[in-house]
Amino acid sequence: MVRKYRWFIDFEREEKWLNDNLQKGYTLIAKNMFGVYHFVEMQNSMKILRLDFQRIKSAHNFESYKSQFEEVGWKHIDGKKGNSFHYWIKEKNGNDKILSDKQSFNSVYAKLSSHYATLMLILLCLIMFVNQTIDPNPFILNPLKAINYTNLLSMNGFEFVFFSAWSIVIMIFRVVPIWLLFFIAFMWLKQFLKYKKVEKILILDKEK
Description:
Layout: E1 2-5, H1 11-23, E2 26-31, E3 36-41, E4 47-56, H2 59-70, E5 75-78, E6 82-91, H3 102-131, H4 149-152, H5 157-207
Antiparallel strand pairs: 1-3, 2-3, 4-6, 5-6
Helix pairs in contact: 3-5
């Protein structure tokens, strides 16, 4: 088994990368949330891999979703119920697209945009809870400024080690969500702009 680490913010590029690996003899068998892809070496030049993003709330709907694709030859590689990407593979037969039209792509971009907007709201609530209010102090860019050194300098021994470790934990809880919020906001904007771009194309197509 071969492990490869990659982090994608564009599912179309991820899909292309996975198919490039497929043509090189590396077949995806699993992927975890930390961006680690697990491959087995197997020649699959006649197969194709596709991604699909779905919001599936119940186990029944999840099984129905998988059955729908398995009936036409797709094999489910990875993906869980909830908000998740799903990875599919099948033999090439000329009908190899899951997202076969602009409307389907637009639906995925809309779901992703809504997904990241929800994550932003959750992070914003977490930041407000931890900091009591959105704090624009410089520690956002310099995490070390989130630590109160005044009390630490008056300590020694075990007390110094304990409160130093505790200060680092507090720093992480105060700073990381803010940085993560900026990243999620970027992801939301990227998907939202793609959604609007495809939507504009669809409107123009209807007017023709």
